[in-house]
Amino acid sequence: MLRVGINGYGTIGKRVADAVRAQPDMEVVGVAKTRPNFEAERAVAKDYPLYAAIEDRVELFDDAGIELAGMVEELVEESDVIVDACPSGVGEQNSELYAEHDTPALYQGGESAEFVDTSFNARSNFADAVDADHVRVVSCNTTGLSRLIAPLGEEYGVEKVRATLVRRGGDPAQSSRGPINDILPDPVTLPSHHGPDVQTIFPDLAIDTLGLKVPATLMHMHSVNVTLEAEPDAAAVRDLLADESRLFVIPERFDIDGAGALKEYAQDAGRPRGDIWENCVWGESVTTEGSDLYLFQAIHQESDVVPENVDAIRAVANAADAAESVATTDDALGMGI
Ligand SMILES: NC(=O)c1ccc[n+]([C@@H]2O[C@H](COP(=O)([O-])OP(=O)(O)OC[C@H]3O[C@@H](n4cnc5c(N)ncnc54)[C@H](OP(=O)(O)O)[C@@H]3O)[C@@H](O)[C@H]2O)c1
């Protein structure tokens, strides 16, 4: 069993912990937090050993009556792999701690690509992370674009990607985020950071991305145009995408018209927290004009990176190859909505 510690038990960390626990070849050593809020309460209720991330805060846990398993340094020492899911920038600060204990670490998409050995997307570059010490699982949007580009590139060749990303203002629990009643070009200059980020996975890819922010919390929406090196018909592209386990091609008969209906569907399907690990591509949006492909896809920002973290754990531990890992992860989670 691979022993996995999770440092940073927020939106991403708590989902990764549950996904790791569901795997047949992994166990959660524990999770680390800085304060005894509701997420700490729930971690304890789920029997995750809870470690304090900051020494000065230990007494806050004592005052709240929450029993700690130890300090984060012990968690790092006891883990075969650490998943750092701290807020952007904190992961890089923590990287020294992981190196001191010789524990391979995964970081999230908010971290810089500069200090890691490689950025990671299971479908696209699993092998680059094998035996690596510091690996960044790319952001929700970059994961969504990479999963789409990989099969298109393999089947047809990709000349150029142009994607407009309509991004949610914040996650449902992020009361401090906005905009509240506005639509922001964000950034107003081109490209948005997403294109260069996708190039951490596909270094030679021609890609331009534009970003907007809207007052929504449910999902991101991508309007994608890919110029291919072939002229397939739309049905063939649709079949190709439907064959990918982490792409959900929404059937027209479902009458799903947006992110709200998608989330409702996920909840009806019994997904934990209403999570949608797959890219959601509207089948009838898949259109080709010569070598130009167009489509819309929705990305659930809180969860699409979760199976990628699980695969990255196996990659750094050299515990499986890409196909085995993805199949195991998908099976354990119940991928395929
Ligand atoms: N949310 C998304 O949509 C999303 C999608 C993809 C990738 N990401 C990336 O994932 C990373 C985490 O994002 P998130 O949305 O999960 O953030 P989050 O919900 O704010 O969770 C981060 C957690 O880390 C804890 N924390 C803060 N400082 C810490 C420290 N020094 N040591 C240990 N824990 C600490 C915080 O909890 P306490 O202070 O209460 O302990 C917080 O709950 C970021 O790089 C982000 O860019 C986020």
Characterization of the model:
- By secondary structure, the chain is α/β, with parallel strands linked by helices.
- Helix content is 33%, strand content 24%.
- The strands form 2 sheets. Strands 4-3-2-1-5-6-8-7 form an 8-stranded parallel sheet, with helices on both faces. Strands 9, 10, 11, 12, 13, 14, 15 and 16 form an 8-stranded mixed sheet that branches.
- It is globular, with a radius of gyration of 20 Å.
- The two termini are 28 Å apart.
- The mean pLDDT is 97.
- Bound molecules: NADP nicotinamide-adenine-dinucleotide phosphate.
Proportion of helical residues: 25-40%
H and E string: EHEHEHEHEHEEHEHEEHEEHEHEEEHH
How are the strands of the biggest sheet laid out side by side? 4-3-2-1-5-6-8-7
The largest sheet is:
8 strands, parallel
Bound molecules: NADP nicotinamide-adenine-dinucleotide phosphate
Average pLDDT score: 97
Please report the total strand number as a whole number. 16
Counted by DSSP, the helix tally is 12
Beta-strand portion reads: 15-25%
Taking the alpha carbons of the first and last residues, their distance comes to: 28 Å
Q: Can you tell me the residue ranges where pLDDT is under 50 for at least 5 consecutive residues?
A: none
What is the alpha-carbon Rg in Å?
20 Å
Name the shape in a single word: globular
Structural class: alpha/beta
